[in-house]
Specification:
This protein has 444 residues and is α/β, with parallel strands linked by helices. It contains 15 helices and 8 strands. The chain is globular.
């Protein structure tokens, strides 16, 4: 009888745990569905443009604490597409010359050609909307943390050599200069900062070719998963006489075709003109399914997928190590109050994953699970990670982390709400930084 009771209790516990896990996954899936339902533009993924209009109020600091230092790492703002315009134009032109365009494809090409002429020489350039994003982020920094700007304020800013990133830095600094008349600014743009500012750059001394991607087996499995879930055949036949045109005439995979077309369509929301001009290409459900397929693919290049040999997330260790070291140095000297960094999504995403902000560092066991752990719309244009430090006389320093200007949770106990002890912050990440560095450097 006792054995039967024990077995029954064990089975009950297994069922409860299993139900809880299923319920948790279902809840997370519901969260990204609701997020996209609230703003369908989130299906643009990393092309999503957020304006900060619905940011919640920040939690007041514990009694006696005031902000005194900000460490900021940001992606460039909204931009023109890079190679996608040219690639798609080349495909349409080739299909047209081969007589493989459908009537719908001919009509679309007639619209795309004049659009292409307006954008083709602006590849990757920051748009006016992108500049304004960083100007508004600067304004919110100034209004949210006025104590940091009290009195003469030294600001140090660093950028990659990319023109769109430099212009993002300039937009932010110019606004801060307007707001804070006694600000002293030092700014630089150089590849010499690649180890912590742009890890995927080949000039990074710790760069390992091919290690910013998942292994081939995982990528092949994702391609099959994508083809099974995304209605690419129906979409292809809107443009071409047959879905076979993709492989037989253009020599491209369905995933590659949809990826480029998605960028051309959703990338218009980054522009100053022609926004939404290709909204008739996808239905809402198609766009949702495409987002799922592309978001999972993006996850493989920046986050932790079970069994994958990619090291992208480990490169976040170099970014955070520099942020911590610089913060300690600036705090000790008392000179610099703001340290601003401007880079790309391929640099800030590993930082978010490495820090495990809002659970982004979890290891995904399936492509569907990636959508809940780190949906691609969490890396919008002008996304940022901000470490804001607080102190009071006789008290230990606190840090609050903002992800896209919203208070984020960290994977260890907080001191008070979204506030964490700075000493705890450093103690938690120090061994993890060392482990990731060792992992990368032993593979060089």
């Amino acid at each position: 009888m006792k054995k039967l009771l024990t077995a029954a209790l064990f089975l009950f516990s297994v069922l409860v745990v299993g139900y809880a896990q299923v319920a948790s996954v279902a809840q997370e899936a519901q969260e990204y569905r609701e997020a996209i339902g609230q703003d369908p533009h989130r299906t643009a993924g990393t092309f999503y443009v957020y304006d900060g209009a619905d940011l919640p109020a920040t939690t007041p600091a514990p009694k006696g604490y005031k902000p005194f230092y900000i460490s900021h790492f940001a992606r460039h703002g909204a931009r023109y597409c890079t190679s996608e315009y040219d690639t798609f134009y080349g495909w349409m032109k080739k299909a047209s010359e081969a007589g493989a365009l459908s009537d719908g494809g001919k009509e679309f090409f007639s619209r795309y050609e004049p659009f292409y002429e307006k954008v083709r020489l602006r590849k990757g350039n920051l748009t006016a909307l992108g500049k304004e994003q960083h100007r508004q982020i600067a304004r919110r920094l100034y209004s949210r943390f006025p104590a940091v700007f009290k009195g003469p304020t030294r600001i140090e800013a660093f950028s990659t050599e990319s023109p769109r990133v430099i212009m993002s830095m300039w937009s932010c600094l110019s606004r801060l200069d307007e707001l804070d008349s006694d600000a002293e600014v030092f700014a630089d743009a150089s590849a010499r900062y690649a180890s912590w500012l742009q890890p995927p750059l080949p000039s990074n001394p710790y760069f390992i070719k091919g290690r910013f991607e998942a292994d081939g087996e995982t990528l092949s499995a994702h391609a099959a998963w994508f083809e099974d879930r995304v209605p690419w055949k129906n979409i292809a036949k809107r443009f071409f006489s047959s879905e076979n045109v993709l492989r037989e005439v253009l020599g491209v995979t369905p995933l590659r075709f949809i990826e480029i077309l998605h960028a051309v369509v959703t990338g218009t929301y980054c522009l100053d003109e022609d926004r939404g001009s290709f909204d008739d290409v996808f239905s809402e459900e198609e766009l949702f399914q495409i987002w799922k397929g592309l978001s999972a693919r993006y996850f493989l290049s920046v986050a932790r997928y079970g069994g994958s040999k990619g090291l992208a997330a480990d490169y976040g260790a170099y970014v955070l190590e520099e942020m911590i070291a610089s913060a300690d140095e600036d705090i000790y000297s008392g000179d610099t109050r703001l340290r601003l960094r401007f880079s790309h999504d391929s640099s800030i995403a590993p930082l978010i994953v490495f820090m495990d902000l809002d659970g982004a560092g979890k290891v995904a066991g399936s492509f569907d699970e990636t959508l809940s752990i780190f949906p691609s719309y969490r890396l919008p244009m002008a996304s940022s990670v901000q470490l804001v430090l607080f102190r009071k006389k006789g008290g230990k320093m606190l840090v609050k982390v903002l992800l896209n200007e919203r208070e984020a949770t960290l994977p260890f106990p907080a001191a008070d709400g979204p506030y964490y002890l700075w000493d705890d912050f450093k103690a938690y990440y120090a061994p993890r930084i060392a482990a990731s560095r060792s992992k990368i450097e032993s593979a060089l």
